[in-house]
Amino acid sequence: MNETIENGFRKKINGVTNVYYEGYWIKCYEPPLDNLSAKKGLIQSLTRRLFNHMEHGINIPGKLLDDVRAAYEAEHDPRKKRVKGAMLAGALFNRAADIFTHLVELEASGVEILPENDLMHTCGQCLREALEFGDLVKHRNGDEGIDELWGEPFKAFIMSVDDFYESRYIKIAMTMKNIDQAATYMAECIKNDPRFPGLDQLILEYAKAARRKCETLRTDDDIFDVWSDFVVAGEEVTDFTPEHNASLTGDPLIDILAVKHMLKSGVRLIAFITRARTPMPKSTEKYLSECAQYKKRLC
C-alpha cells in the first residue's frame, strides 16, 4: 500500500533537506531573516531576474515614471501603446525598488519604518500597478509574458520571507512538471525513429538536468556543476548525429532537418522554462502542436 506524501513534507535526501510538492522532491534553502533588508535583497534579485527574461527596452529608470506614463497615455496606435505600456510596467517596477532601497537605508540609520508608512504604501501601489501592466509585456521568445515573474516582487513585498520561499517551492514543482511535459512528448516523437537511436533517453536526461538546475540557486556551491551539466545535456540532444536509413520513404534530408528543428526548439523551450523557474503554458502548447505535426508526417 503506497503511503501518501503530504505537500510541504521535508526529509533529508543524500544529506540535503528536500521538500515535497506535487510529486517532486525539491532542494530546500534556509530563508534569510524576515526584515526590510532581506526583502530589499529579494526584490532586487527578483527585479534583475524579471528584466533578464522580458523583452528588451522595458527596463526604464523609476525617475522617468511620469514621462513614460505620459507617453503611454498619449499613444493611440494599439501596437505602440502595448510597447509603451510594457515600458511603464518597467518604470513602475523600478520606482518601487528605488523606494524600498531608500527605506532600508533609513532603517539602517536607526529610523523605524512601520508598515503603514506612506512610502511603504506607495511602494506597494507601484508594484501592484506594475503587475497590472505586466500583462502587456512579452517574454523574450515573443510568445507570452509570464505573469508569475511580475507577481513575485509584489508577493515578496506583502508576504513574510518564509512564506515567500515556500510559495517558490510550489512554483518550482509546477515548473518541473512543465519541463517533463515538454521533454516526454518530444522523446515520444523520436523514440521509434530508426535514424535517432537512443535520442529519446538523451532528451529525458536533459529534462533531469533541467529539473536540477531549476531547484538550484545561483549562490549554491553546486551551481558550477549543475549549470555545466544542464548546458552539455542540451547540446547532446541538439548535436545528435542521425543514422542513415535507406528504408525511409520521401526525402530523408528534409525529414532530418525538420527533426533537428523540432529538437532545437524543444531544448530552447525547456531552457526558457528552467531559467525562468515558472511554467510557460502558451509556449509549451505551441511547441507540442508543432511536435504533433511532425508525428503525423512520420506516420
Strand-helix topology:
Layout: E1 10-13, E2 16-21, E3 24-27, H1 36-53, H2 65-74, H3 78-108, H4 118-133, H5 147-158, H6 161-190, H7 199-215, H8 223-238, H9 252-276, H10 281-298
Antiparallel strand pairs: 1-2, 2-3
Helix pairs in contact: 1-3, 1-5, 2-3, 3-4, 4-5, 6-7, 6-9, 6-10, 7-8, 7-9, 9-10
Provide a compact summary of the structure:
This protein is mostly helical. It is 65% helix and 5% strand. The chain has ten helices and three strands.
Task: List its traits.
299 residues, mainly alpha, three-stranded antiparallel beta sheet, 3 strands, globular
User: What structural class do the secondary elements suggest?
Assistant: mainly alpha
Could you describe the largest sheet, including whether it forms a barrel?
A: 3 strands, antiparallel
Average pLDDT figure: 86
DSSP strand content = under 5%
Radius of gyration: 22 Å
Kindly describe this structure.
The chain has 299 residues and is mainly alpha-helical. It folds into two domains: 36-159, no CATH class; 171-298. The chain has ten helices and three strands, in the order E-E-E-H-H-H-H-H-H-H-H-H-H. It has a three-stranded antiparallel sheet with strand order 1-2-3. 31% of the residues are buried. The mean pLDDT is 86.
